[in-house]
Design goal:
The structure is a single chain. With 421 residues, this protein is of the alpha/beta class. It folds into 3 domains: 3-76, RNA polymerase II/Efflux pump adaptor protein, barrel-sandwich hybrid domain (OB fold (Dihydrolipoamide Acetyltransferase, E2P), Beta Barrel); 129-161, E3-binding domain (Dihydrolipoamide Transferase), CATH 4.10.320; 178-420, Rossmann fold (3-Layer(aba) Sandwich). It is 26% helix and 17% strand. The chain is built from 12 helices and 15 strands. The chain has a 7-stranded mixed β-sheet, sandwiched between helices. Helix 3 links the parallel strand 10 and strand 11.
């Protein structure tokens, strides 16, 4: 008998998961524990391993929503006869349509007959799509569903609600920008910067990491990476994950700051066997609070005078952000299209000054050595978010530092990372 591949439950609130991509083609063999497919939930995306050895048949189409505990594919032993699909996919059931409204009797006028309009069927939609539409104050009938039988998916709502392209912002295509250091031995260190920054921001810390190969990644719409149209946090992670996969690394020590920390945590959650250690510096995704005004100020600044005050909010000691530092930062942001692209990204990831993605469940799942570094004078993201980490995660909390410990105290942060890698 074939082995059912069951949709797993990866967090307490999860009722279903959407098949994002299959790692194995139909009819190809897979070993127990090998990556089999990626799923997306309301909170994160993750990789699911094969429950047994076998050959993959009857996989659910990518984009299909499957209820927890229901089959999404079957594994057949070599030589086993493959017939029709053993059972229907456990797609989330559509909500029943409401009963038709009673129609009041209408007296005939001049012998003309009046008939009631038939009640419209309630639009088919996933629970997350309904919630997103409700939060936006939009009726589900205003969205075009791309799911099975016209079902409205969360991505359909997110794409429709995405802001119109800003003036001067034309979405680009192409791979993310990746910079490799020269020298170093052993497992490489992969660095992912924060929002409105770029790969060059790691320079003060990188001097402490030269014993290893160092790889820096520019996030989409940052540095030298293309200005991509990002629809949601999972979309952002997908782009960075593809860039990391293309490196074909056996393993990596992953270091991320702020938004880059959130991306690094999501990568560790979906590629756990590839991550040797995880260092999160003031990471996003562990609570809704964030300084929305600072994000807006950084995106809107068109000159040094307007950028410098917002940059100084990033450090506990404002004197670290000199006029020269601000001029260099503004020089990298002179392109209006870059600023518009980052503003569009901020609107998607931080609507109304709130972190719209939640990675606390992902942090609970990580098994590799993990450390969180945070400054207690962080004015951008509350350092108290670190206290939500499970006991297996080491915390390094600094009294006199702000949102950029890797720049404010590179020696201390460098020692911590060196001890881990």
């Amino acid at each position: 008998m074939p082995v059912e591949v069951i949709m797993p439950k990866v967090d307490m609130d999860m009722a279903s998961g959407k098949i994002m991509s299959w790692h194995v083609a139909v009819g190809q063999p897979v070993a127990k524990g090998d990556p089999l497919f990626d799923i997306e939930t309301d909170k994160a995306a993750m990789e699911v391993e094969s429950p047994a050895d076998g050959m993959l048949y009857h996989p659910a189409p990518e984009g299909t929503e499957i209820q927890i505990g229901q089959p999404c594919a079957w594994l057949y032993a070599e030589g086993e006869e493959v017939g029709d699909q053993p059972a229907a996919f456990g797609a989330a059931a559509a909500e029943p349509a409401p009963p038709p409204e009673p129609v009041a009797a209408v007296e005939p006028v001049r012998e003309l007959a009046f008939t009631a309009e038939p009640a419209l069927e309630k639009p088919r939609a996933t629970p997350r799509a309904r919630r997103l539409a409700s939060e936006a104050g939009r009726d589900l009938t205003s969205f075009v569903g791309t799911g099975p039988r016209g079902r409205v998916q969360a991505d359909d709502v997110l794409q429709a609600l995405a802001p119109a392209p800003s003036a001067g912002f034309t979405a680009e295509t192409g791979p993310l920008s990746i910079t490799r250091s020269k020298g170093g031995e052993g497992t490489p260190i992969v660095l992912i910067h924060g929002f409105a920054s770029d790969a060059t921001s790691w320079a003060p810390l990188e001097t402490h990491l030269r014993h290893r190969p160092v790889i820096r990644i520019d996030l989409p719409s940052h540095g030298k990476s293309p200005k991509l149209r990002i629809r949601c946090f999972a979309d952002l992670v997908k782009e960075v994950r593809a860039a990391v996969d293309d490196l074909h690394l056996d393993a990596a020590h992953l270091v991320g700051h702020s938004l880059g920390g959130a991306v690094a945590l999501a990568l560790a959650d979906t590629r756990p066997r590839k991550i040797a250690s995880l260092t999160l510096i003031a990471p996003g995704g562990l609570g809704p609070e964030i300084d929305g005004a600072a994000l807006t100020g950084l995106c809107n600044a068109t000159r040094v005078e307007s950028l410098a005050p917002w940059l100084r909010r990033l450090a506990a000691d404002e004197s670290l952000i000199t006029d020269g530092y601000a001029r260099l930062a503004m020089a990298s942001r002179n392109d209006p299209a870059l600023r518009h692209a980052q503003a569009a990204l901020a609107d998607v990831l931080f609507p109304d000054g709130t972190q719209a993605f939640d990675l606390r469940a992902a942090l609970d799942r990580v098994d590799m050595p993990t450390r969180i570094i945070w400054g207690k004078r962080d004015a951008i993201i509350p350092w108290s978010h670190a206290l939500r980490a499970p006991g297996k995660v080491a915390l390094h909390l600094f009294d006199g530092l702000g949102h950029m410990p890797q720049i404010e105290a590179p020696d201390e942060v460098g020692k911590i990372i060196r001890s881990l890698v």
